[in-house]
Amino acid sequence: FSPGLLVVAGSFAAFRLLNRGLERLVPPPPSARRNRWKWRNIWTSLAHSALPDAHSLSPRRFYLHPEMSNDLVGTHPPGAHSLVAVSVGYFIEDFVDMLCNQKLHQSWELLFHHSVVIICFGIAVLLHQYVGFALVALLVEINSIFLHLRQILLMANLVHTACYRLNSLVNLGTYVVFRMATLAWMSRWLFLNRHNVPPAAYAVGTAGMAIMTPMNIILFYRLLRSDFLK
């Protein structure tokens, strides 16, 4: 039994409670009242995306702990294991929320994405290894802040505003830096360290990268087409 599972369970419960109370904290505008669960879901996701930044999960951590660049298997800074466990709790909560409130054909991509993340992060939590690798993966959440803001502005019918336009530019820029470049760096690290990673873990990591990379390329094209090419 891993104490990390308690953190996962507590995180799940906390994000579930937050989801239930968000409509009172952030009342949906008239344009979003037809899809109230989605409004709550996006704000919950935004709260999770802001967590890594609040815990200083940024390139600064890798500057303060340079040994992580060479060893993402057994090395991680204090509190990193709990942060990954909190993220696992969130992804499980979001998985359950979408499964209960959205049709499968509308959410299968995100459900598939969350399944991969839960498996990969879950291994790091249970084994207390690959936590550094999970931290690198969580860098994508910096972009997710602007990705979720974009959805909130869309639901609030604020597409034709300077705020939406500015967010679109920042969203695309952070997408390239913190999502595309991060996945490329992780794939490179995994390939270069394939002899130092057990076959089972290497297979899971390779499968995760093989799934995430095309999904993120497709999403990038959709964002580019929707916000800039129309």
UniProtKB/TrEMBL annotation:
Compartmental location: Membrane
* Entry superkingdom: Eukaryota
Q: What transmembrane ranges does the database entry give?
A: 133-149, 169-188, 200-224
GO BP terms: namely: membrane assembly; phospholipid homeostasis; plasma membrane organization; regulation of membrane lipid distribution
Annotated membrane topology: Multi-pass membrane protein
| Alphabetized UniProt keyword annotations | Membrane, Transmembrane, Transmembrane helix
User: What name is this protein filed under?
Assistant: TLCD2 protein
In the UniProt record, the gene name given for this protein reads: Tlcd2
